[in-house]
Write a structure and sequence with these properties.
two-stranded antiparallel ribbon; 4 helices; elongated; binds zinc ion; about 110 residues; about 10% strand
């Protein structure tokens, strides 16, 4: 069992081989890694690189305040939104806006004479 100070997720296990051939476990602090886009892997702008800043800063400073801010880069977000609209919204609008169906579904008023 590791010492209590090393039972934290901010340390990572590193296996080192000693000169005598024995493998021992060392604990190293994790390095600050920049956040990357979930789709293409580019480094996200507007997200702090330091892990401590990501913990302590207010939420509005941790990521861009748009949809999928801090998850997707703007280029990927643009393509995702375009694809979703083309696949889901355009067929729905095409069926709704056909004029023959809308006229046929409305009931005709009965003329009294
Ligand atoms: Zn991306």
């Amino acid at each position: 069992m590791p010492r209590p100070v090393y039972r934290s997720r901010s340390y990572k296990k590193v296996y080192r081989r000693t000169p005598s051939g024995r493998t021992v476990v060392h604990y190293e602090r994790k390095k600050n890694t920049p956040m990357k886009c979930a789709r293409c892997g580019t480094i996200l702008a507007g997200v702090p690189i330091k892990e401590s800043e990501r913990r302590t800063l207010p939420k509005t400073l941790k990521r861009p305040e748009r949809i999928f801010g801090g998850v997707l880069c703007p280029r990927c977000l643009k393509t995702v939104i375009k694809r979703v609209i083309r696949e889901e919204l355009v067929p729905v609008l095409a069926t709704k806006s056909s004029p023959q169906q809308t006229v046929a579904t409305q009931p005709q008023p009965v003329a009294q004479s």
